[in-house]
Amino acid sequence: MEYSQFNDSLLSFLQASPTPFHATDSMRLALLAEGYVELVEEDNWVIEEGGKYFVTRNESSLIAFTTPVLDVSQTGWRMIGAHTDSPCLKLKPNAHVDRFGYHQLGVEVYGGVLLHTWLDRDLSIAGRVTAKTDAGNIVSRLIDFKEPIAVVPNLAIHLNRKVNEGFSVNPQEEILPILCGADNEFDLHQLLIAQLRQQHPDLPVAQVLDFELSLYDTQPAALVGLHKEYICSARLDNLLSCYVGLQALLSSNNERPSLLICTDHEEIGSLSACGANGPFLDDVLRRLSPNPEQFVQAIQRSMLVSADNAHALHPNYANRHDKNHAPAINKGAVIKVNANQRYATNSETASIYRDVAAQENYHVQTFVVRSDMGCGSTIGPITSGEIGVPTIDIGLPTFGMHSIRELAGSHDAFGLYKVLARFTKRDTLMTR
Predict the structure, then answer these.
(1) For the segment 238-292, what is each residue's pLDDT rounded down to a tens digit?
(2) Is 333 in contact with 394 (CB distance < 8 Å)?
(3) Sign of CA dihedral 94, 98, 103, 108
(4) How far is CA 217 from the centre of its chain?
(5) Lowest CB count within 10 Å: 184, 247, 313, 406, which one?
(6) 8-state DSSP, 151
(7) CA-angle at 62, arms to 59 and 63, nearest 5°
(8) What is the domain-level CATH number for residue 40?
(9) Total Cβ atoms within 10 A of residue 4
(10) What is the DSSP-derived secondary structure letter of residue 216?
(11) Domain of 177, in residue numbers
(12) What sort of enzyme, by top EC class, is this (predicted)?
């Protein structure tokens, strides 16, 4: 895949994936188009040598893998990990709020949202709705309104004279989106039924039972900057890594046992049935290992590249970085290191990645948080701690992480894709 095709496809993927459910479905459709076979956890699996498979859980997490050989105890897996969720505003169960002449939506803050960036944006709603059909069956379907149907207006400076000296947003009172005036009738469940019938005309919807819906910014993802060298979009953290990992897996040509895992709920700690701190990956790998001894052998001959965005040095806030570990956008992916194991990188996994990157003539950067600041974490330490796989944490340098609209480098994304594609084909990881 060439640079322009890669980035055009990336923008389309970001646009089609406003929620983890939609991101997982986007990857599912891409895998099916490339001949991957969809497995169902409730069924018996028949795995063949030379096969390509994937499985989803909760419709928001996905594992895809190739099996050039069935016994991976001597080869191990070449694993790439990312997460499908992003900080956002989610609708509360009783979401309708009617106050002061406006129909509004009560929302819950999901993850570490930069709340002020959600003000004055054209917002839509997407997610999963569970309904009962005319026949009494309970089914779930994805919906996406796509059009801007909500907005959270800012407060005029005339009513908040000190706003430019710093302000906070109260998530209970001040971030509720406006849908329409109270002169209009509004029933959220009827709105959802109408949307289900529009998007799924063959589904005889009788009643909406529940939903998991998120707000999102309708402004399209774009290449920006004087030379179009930046990617500007919502949810770059971490759909950018999901897309890069997916394309790397599709380019692996089934040469080595390779696996992509994209899990939900990383932004809130990963502790769920479909999160990295849950049993999903372990469940899948044990179904692919004939016995416990071969399972351990396979894991110890494997390596996981945990790909999540990294903080680029912001020229307006340079003092927030350790000057010796200050990544720049479009200067290569970042190896993330933390002595307290907030990242899972060690000297061996870092060396393997550096060697693979060098074979692609791809520059490598390093990030260590300032010693007087707290450090975030990723699925890397969680996955490594759960199954014992050697792991490296890397990420693409990013501005505005957890903003409604983030910024990364288009050359970085394409370069990382080439490195990870080579990683999936690598024969020997470490010589003991």
Answers:
(1) 999 999 999 999 999 888 999 999 999 999 999 999 999 999 999 999 999 889 9
(2) yes
(3) negative
(4) 16
(5) 184
(6) B
(7) 150
(8) 3.40.630.10
(9) 12
(10) E
(11) 89-217
(12) hydrolase
> What letter does residue 131 receive in the DSSP assignment?
E
The Cα 224–Cα 409 span in angstroms is 10
Together in a domain, 187 and 257: no
pLDDT digits (tens, 9 = 90+) for 18-62: 999 999 999 999 999 999 999 999 999 999 999 999 999 999 999
Same domain, 65 and 97: no
Q: How far is CA 10 from CA 3, 122, 228, in A?
A: 11, 22, 14
* CA angle at 350 for the pair 347 and 354, rounded to the nearest 5°: 130
H or E segment to which residue 354 belongs:
helix 347-359
Burial of 6 (0-12, 13-18, 19+ CB in 10 A): middle
Q: Which tokens belong to 226?
A: 């004087």
Same domain, 290 and 375: yes
Query: Cα separations (Å) of 7 from 230, 336, 423?
Result: 10, 24, 21
Strand order in the sheet with 303-307: 37-39, 51-57, 61-67, 258-263, 78-83, 303-307, 391-395, 334-336, 365-367
Which amino acid makes up residue 161?
R
Q: How far is CA 273 from the centre of its chain?
A: 16
The DSSP code sequence of 23-86 is: HHHHHHHHHHHTTPEEE-TTSPP---TTEEEEEEETTTEEEEEEESSS--TTT--EEEEEE---
Sign of CA dihedral 377, 379, 382, 388: negative
Q: Does residue 39 belong to any structural domain of this protein?
A: yes
Q: Residue 157 is part of a domain; what is its CATH number?
A: 2.30.250.10
The beta-strand segments (E) located in 270-355 are: 303-307, 310-311, 334-336
Question: Helix (H, G, I), strand (E, B), or coil: what is residue 281?
Answer: helix
CB contact set of 285 (below 8 Å; sequence gap of 6+) = 77, 295, 298, 299, 387
